[in-house]
Design a protein that fits this description.
about 70 residues, alpha+beta, about 45% strand
């Protein structure tokens, strides 16, 4: 069984990171749509923006990129 990871990218340092998870494809699809509309959903849609603490100590703004499939062994 696989799941989906919500990816964000920091505007300041460029790092891409995981900030949320979705259990299955349908949940990830719905969460992505709700996130794009700025609505809260039963699937726990991520916000469109998040805060990222950069390696050099900076505080960046990160943007939601979408969900990427993750296999159990990852």
């Amino acid at each position: 069984m696989s799941g989906y990871s919500a990816l964000f990218k920091c505007r300041l340092c460029g790092e891409t990171f995981i900030a949320a998870e979705a259990g299955g494809r349908k949940a990830a699809e719905r969460a992505a749509i709700y996130a794009s509309m700025g609505k809260v959903s039963e699937e726990q849609a991520p916000d469109l923006h998040d805060i990222h603490i950069c390696e050099g100590g900076g505080i960046g703004i990160a943007d939601f990129l979408g969900f990427k499939e993750r296999k159990d062994d990852e």
